[in-house]
Amino acid sequence: MLEDIDRLIEAVKVFHAENQQELEQFRIRYLGKKGILNDLFREFRDVPTNQKKETGQRINDLKQLVTDRIEEISGTFSGNSESDRHHDLTLPGPSIRTGARHPVSIIRNQIIEIFSRQGFTISEGPEIEDDWHVFSALNFPPEHPARDMQDTFFISRNPDVLLRTHTSSVQVRVMEREKPPIRTISPGRVFRNEAISARAHCIFHQVEGLYIDENVSFADLKQILLYFVHEMFGPDVAIRLRPSYFPFTEPSAEMDVSCRLCGGKGCNVCKHTGWLEIMGCGMVDPNVLSFNCIDPEKYTGYAFGMGIERVAMLKYQVRDLRLYFENDVRFLDQFSSAH
Ligand code: 2NL
Questions:
Q1: Closest residue by CA, ligand 1 atom 6
Q2: Nearest CA to 336 among 95, 111, 98, 117?
Q3: What CATH number is associated with residue 196?
Q4: Is 156 contained in some domain?
Q5: Which long-range contacts (CB under 8 A, 24 or more apart) does 64-68 make?
């Protein structure tokens, strides 16, 4: 039987077909239902056990050779066979896929650019922090709910090892290191123990700003925020400040921008108010200055914080926060790669 198979192998090696029809006949002769290979597999059942391995291997070799040969010969035929298309030199080449920046990176870079022009430095710091830099130095009272397991991720059973919930912790480190005047922004990733939805995520990005010097006033805060909004969204966008509360600023405010979609008239996106909330801000609480060895009698400061995803949502009209983290290229491809 082995000799028969070897003879067939030699025959297949030298086989040629003039056209598709001859090739098809060849295929049927070998691979068809009543073809040579099925006959061989049938005979194989009666092969003595000690020869089964070698014989089986040889039949499989023959089968592979036949398949390869058919593929090879069919590739040489002109006409509309599948493999011919690969050789059509008049077809346009495959398009080169270029990457695009993630929208969060684009907006972060724009925010950095805008504040750099106004003399702000960029500061960065650790994502894993301690209680002092995230809470205590920022005037959070001991029983504040943000310190709860429900809101903050702790790394271990040690309550002094946690993931920062805002990048103010970076600014506390700047105040430790440097004397006023301090003018810095801190972009970075922050973590909150929140259920994921269209409007909330447990990881997101923030830019916080801090300016401490003699005679810094609320008017200074208002002008820098207005400048930022005009640079980011255009000169026609208006701002408004609403009184608010944060442990680390006094007084505190929330800033809204006028809705660009309806021009302030009211629509679905702004929930018919004409305004969209964009950031929190205020005058640095004197306690925060004292905790960080800055004399509150001599110095005052303003601070603000915004979510980068939120700014990008307003700018690009993204409806669902989860899109930023799924990395679906159909989403990511829509943003310019210029920044
Ligand atoms: C928000 C509100 C805010 C700050 C952040 C800050 C930092 C220092 C001292 C005082 Cl070191 N304040 N940051 C102030 C007011 C608001 O963020 O809604 N962020 C997304």
A1: 303
A2: 98
A3: 3.30.930.10
A4: yes
A5: 65/9, 65/12, 65/13, 66/12, 66/27, 66/30, 66/31, 66/37, 67/31
3-state secondary structure of 277: strand
Residue 82 lies in a domain: no
Neighbours of 235 (CB within 10 A): 7
Specify whether 50 is located in the same domain as 143. Answer: no
Residue 260 backbone phi and psi in degrees, to 5: -75, -25
Name the nearest CA neighbour of 218 among 208, 226, 207.
226
pLDDT one-digit tens code per residue, 14-37: 888 888 888 999 999 999 999 999
Mean pLDDT confidence for 211-239: 97
User: Could you list the residue range(s) of the whole structural domain that residue 45 is in?
Assistant: 2-77
Judge if 289 and 189 occupy the same domain.
Answer: yes
**Cβ–ligand 1 contact at 152 (below 6 Å):** no
pLDDT tens digit sequence for 133-176: 999 999 998 888 777 777 889 998 888 899 999 999 999 999 99
Q: What residue has token string 């050789």?
A: 87
Q: Are residues 132 and 217 in the same domain?
A: yes
Mutate to test the pocket of ligand 1, among 168, 218, 292 (most ligand atoms within 8 A of CB): 168
User: Does a structural domain hold residue 136?
Assistant: yes
Same domain, 108 and 255: yes
Q: Which residues contact 33 (CB under 8 A, 6 or more apart)?
A: none
* 258 Cβ closer than 6 Å to some ligand 1 atom: no
Point out the ligand 1 atom lying closest to the alpha carbon of residue 282.
15
Of 14, 42, 77, the position where a domain reaches its end is 77
Ligand 1 atom nearest the C-alpha of 138 is: 9
CA distance 255 to 244: 10
